[in-house]
Amino acid sequence: MGASSMRRIVLAALAFAALGARAGTLVVNANTSDPAPRAAWEAAVQHFQREHPEVEVRLNVYDHESYKKAIRNWLTAAPPDVVFWFAGNRMRQFVAPGLLAEVSELYTPEVRAQLHPSALGLIGVGGRQYGVPYTYYPVGLYYRRDLVAAPRTWSELLAACERLAAQGLEPIAIGTRELWPAAAWFDYINLRLNGYAFHMRLMDGRVPYTDERVRAVFAHWRELLERRCFSRNHASSTWQESQALLYQGKSAMMLIGHYIVPQMPEAAKAQMDFTAFPAIRAGAGRAEEAPMNTLHIPARARNKEDARKFLAFVLRADVQQALNQAMLQIPVNLQARPADERFVRLGRTHLAQAEHLSQYFDRDTTEDLAQVAMKGFQEFMLHPQRLDGILQTIEQSRQRIYGR
146 φ, ψ to 5°? Predict the structure, then answer.
């Protein structure tokens, strides 16, 4: 055998070995940078590797905002094997151009029977599934019992703001530097004023943003602004920074997701409580925001075999139980026991009483429209007199994306 032939055999063997090593490495990109979910997922990865010692998991954790900006590039250019993402419209935007792999084979009749009824629709397109849900959580009003009683109606919320502002407090903590926290206020005012069916038509691009019913949402929102309800420096603060106002007793309320609970210092937690967003119009119904988080396999992932093992692992009740008890959130697998913790119990009851569940503004509508609209929401909170121009800008984007 000649030297050149031997060299070709050696190179082929090295290439085969490299492929084998690559096949045993599972690259997972996660957006779980907050302390509680990060620790929960690191423990889950260790659990998976104990069961699958042949697989080396490389867990890459990114902060939320940089993750949102990077995921489309990952899916199109250099995809990992598993990505963390969101259910509903945000997932479907990646399914439509073929960027996510179908995983319907994971949903056996036994698995389907274990999942929350809304889950299959939220991770499905045309009856096929493209991801695995592992947690969902309520968005509602967290408040300090030592500073304010739970506002049950819109007039009670306005009166609470007036009283708290007169005491020198910033009644409602909020940070809109990352834009999306303002969207919760738009969502809930719209849901309580115009109802779930109208809200979802708006999210689907079927209603103009210049519609009088949308203007009514901003008219109510403006009532809050006129009463100095919100944090003065909200545009330069993140939600993590603004939550400190609650713990310091400088604010009394915050409209936020359940992920705030693990952040609460014990001293402040004793004073905190949770309630639904106040009612505005009788007959609007009771819809609540309950975003669902998910895992997916990119269509161009190299190690789909181990990725499917990982997603099947995450569907299990014992895995979702451990994850959600650590994160103090609610498992999608109905056989998984949530943590026996006060805010988890309140959140489960809160969602059980809802007639409908929505995801969140930037998950229920398209990403492009959400970015334009959320910039408009922040601008409105700073300059409410610009409303006409703001609505025209959002409406132009709606027409560009959805058509007239």
Answer: -80, -10
- Token couple for 140: 């509602």
> pLDDT averaged over the chain?
92
Pairing label, strands 292-296, 272-275: unpaired
Coil, helix or strand for 350?
Answer: helix
The per-residue pLDDT for range 208-234, each reduced to its tens digit, is 999 999 999 999 999 999 999 999 999
Residue 173 token pair: 């903590």
Please tell me the distance from the alpha carbon of residue 13 to that of residue 148, in angstroms, as a whole number: 71
pLDDT digits (tens, 9 = 90+) for 344-359: 999 999 998 999 999 9
Q: How many helices (H) and strands (E) does the chain have?
A: 18, 12
Interatomic CA distance for residues 215 and 202, integer angstroms: 13
Rounded to whole angstroms, how far apart are CA atoms 196 and 199?
Answer: 5
Task: Sort residue 216 into left (φ over 0), alpha (ψ -120 to 50) or beta.
Answer: alpha
Q: Look up the pTM and report it.
A: 0.85
Residues 344, 186 contacting (CB under 8 angstroms): no
